[in-house]
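Notes from hallway chat w/ T.B., transcribed later so I don't forget. T.B. wanted the structure written out for a chain they're using in a teaching module, and asked if we could keep both sequence and structure tokens in one place. Agreed to drop them here.
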Amino acid sequence: MEGGLCTGFEKLVMDADRLGSYQKLLGGLEVDDNSLARDAYEEVDPGGHFLGSAHTMRNYKTAFYEPALSDSENVESWEEKGSTDMRNRAYERWTTLLNQYEPPPIDEATDEALNDFVARRKSELPDAWY
């Protein structure tokens, strides 16, 4: 799209966040006694709820994928906290990652070899406007 002019670090971070949910989905579903939750159905009376059941307590932390950038607050709470939208959360995320980045140690010979490789490849490129 538009020769890449619509790309930015925010989009990259949002796409990575979305890929996390795809990874969770593509991991498949386990079908076993725990996932079928028969014990929960036996424990909860008709008209009751499953939120406090032993099964829910055992599984609620790992049962769902929680995207890092999403905000599951209700609208009122979201507005009270400043109405930060996805684009701004993505901006905060990539700037935080960039500020926290520490280059890995690299020995001098490897660094020199990489620089030589890049210089050689650049010299092999045809002259162009870019």
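Follow-up for T.B.: Residues 9-26 form the longest helix (18 residues). Might be a good example for the class.
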